[in-house]
């Protein structure tokens, strides 16, 4: 993974000093709330219901064991002994004190971490596939470019105060796992007909109040021009994006208002001035950064391991975990492992400091000291030998990190919701927990198969509810909490936005609503059809009919 | 004490006396408060009217001395102002919702202006940065570029890198204190108006 040189280190150190002084001036009354807001937000600090929330950046989801141990210690020292992995692959602390945040940032800086631009109206953490570099279907490892873009976007002088937040995702695989179409800019890397690294550029996607999938603005962009092209897009947005209405301020609204053709014309005109200028990435710089992402020093291993095969055959619990939590690797004899942060009945994405230490130890012992966070809010050991999987499973299971539910209904993506977040209309974690308990039967979960259930506590859509096969959105009606249900959303290359099935439900009704949706699926499915396939084939009607059946007669 | 920070040619910042008088049109006859979803709208969008014809007509222009005049006042009262421009006593104020193209349409050679000021009504309006960068890079403007309005120390580093070389700090804040923020970072990652990206600037091996 990327390692700081003295320049990177100096930037985060200077940031700590800058923020420490800003916080001091705020506490001394020299900065108003309104003036301090963008400053603290661009350091990841929200003012929440109970306490501030601090969002720590995990650039494109990559962490070292040393960094995770530091995070564990920080959650112990400054918080309540746990953290929450978010859908932007970042880590959130729910209970820090405002006065402590400069010290927390100073501690983070000692392990090459920060909270820069994890919130606010600026370019946010760039996200990617959690299997980058090891996925068998990967064409290009996008992480070197992602790191170059992280540096370019950090304190960008022109884009410090955009109309609204700006999210970029990169992906270099056949099967998109980074939801590039749901981002302000999505960069899909591929090899062009010349065999060169090229990029398909998507623009104007986003979830939130107005969910829209992105549009392709450029089919073929040479990698050297990715910074200048993004700069052209964001310049047009910075000048013309709406600032008079927060709900219409994302780039997706501008792209829709102008139409993609006119928007593209303006971007290309801008780009003509920037192309081939100093923003052109040199081969030297790409090579400098790419050397941090070279393949791990893998052993030469056979494709099979007899002891592993025997354990799978004789131990059904291990076999179930292997089926759900172990993933293919491009190198023979290696696998990637997802450590589930979704045990049934616990807040999705939460991890205690003790568990962080366990994961850091596992990474050191079995996966070259590195790990990744996923936008599905789990942790990944990317490079585990087949022969080590049983040991990893036993240790993970002892720490409550081996729930074999990855990709299943209870692997719920969920925002912190109304229990913590001051933006939320409704609680989301208790809904997730109730649904997990409703389906706390692994055999039934396996029978249901692949299903993505996403929950957001408000239309800001941090829980990506629009692209969940089942999406649940907390809404406020006359001061009480209700839940709107969508089905048919999907992430990936064939992404879609879900359809609302009808009037919203109370919290108590939600587990039963999900149960009924599943009943229709189980009744109607054909062959190997997944839930999403059945919804796409049949449409919303039969699901709606069954969910609302009794309600109408009652 | 002056509120004006100026950068010298070699980048040295100092607080200097302000030679320029800003010409501000009178408030409109009826103050219309624009609201959306119950919230007061604070931002003007590109193409919106900056001042009404009445406001422009009623603008008091000092008879002598160096004056900073809004672009729309210049457009409407050019004949009266042209001698001042010729005497080197006129600069233009551009609002963030106005365009560099509109300015260029008035002054084929932007360098005939000794100063351009960009007025930012709300510090959170980041259009000022792109406007500044455009004037410097696209339009080749070389003279004084000044940030005025809601100009606060925590944005100065960005203003500077976007091409501004003078900053009129908001009246209720100390310009002296603000000086420190011009040097918040010693080696920024990306290029700015006056420099190239760090990997072109230094050898990172």
Strand order of the largest sheet of chain B: 2-1-10-9-8-7-6-3
Count of individual helical segments of chain A: 18
Residues in helix, % of chain A: 25-40%
Largest pleated sheet of chain B? 8 strands, mixed
Average residue pLDDT of chain A: 95
DSSP summary: helix tally of chain B: 8
Instruction: Give me the CATH architecture of the domain at 67-205 in chain B, please.
Output: Alpha-Beta Barrel
- Describe the main β-sheet of chain A briefly: 5 strands, antiparallel
Rg of chain B, rounded, reads 18 Å
Q: Which structural class best describes the helix and strand composition of chain B?
A: alpha/beta
Mean pLDDT of chain B: 94
By DSSP, the count of extended strands of chain B is: 10
What fraction strand of chain A? 15-25%
Please, could you describe this protein's structure?
The complex is a heterodimer of chains A (554) and B (205). With 554 residues, chain A is of the alpha+beta class. Chain A folds into four domains: 6-109, Sulfite Reductase Hemoprotein, domain 2; 135-290, 2-Layer Sandwich (Sulfite Reductase Hemoprotein, domain 1); 306-398, Sulfite Reductase Hemoprotein, domain 2; 413-553, Sulfite Reductase Hemoprotein, domain 1 (2-Layer Sandwich). Chain A has helices at residues 6-27, 33-41, 65-78, 101-109, 143-153, 226-240, 251-258, 260-274, 283-290, 306-314, 316-325, 353-366, 389-398, 429-438, 442-448, 510-524, 531-538, 541-553, and strands at 45-47, 52-56, 62-64, 82-85, 91-93, 127-128, 168-171, 185-191, 197-203, 215-222, 326-327, 334-339, 350-352, 370-373, 379-385, 413-414, 453-456, 470-477, 480-487, 499-500. Chain A has a five-stranded antiparallel β-sheet with strand order 1-2-5-4-13. A five-stranded antiparallel β-sheet of chain A has the order 3-14-15-12-11. Chain A has a five-stranded mixed β-sheet with strand order 6-7-8-9-10. In chain A, a hairpin with a 5-residue loop joins β4 and β5 (91-93). In chain A, α1 runs antiparallel to α4, α6 (226-240) crosses α8 (260-274) and α14 (429-438) packs across α16 (510-524). The N and C termini of chain A lie far apart (59 Å). The model of chain A has no long low-confidence stretch (mean pLDDT 95). Chain B contains eight helices and ten strands. Chain B has helices at residues 53-57, 71-76, 78-86, 100-106, 127-137, 156-161, 175-178, 198-201, and strands at residues 4-7, 13-16, 20-22, 35-36, 39-40, 66-70, 90-95, 115-120, 144-149, 166-168. In chain B, 38% of the residues are buried. In chain B, α4 (100-106) links the parallel β7 (90-95) and β8 (115-120). In chain B, the strands form two sheets. An eight-stranded mixed β-sheet of chain B has the order 2-1-10-9-8-7-6-3. Chain B is of the alpha/beta class. Chain B has a domain at 67-205: TIM Barrel (Alpha-Beta Barrel).
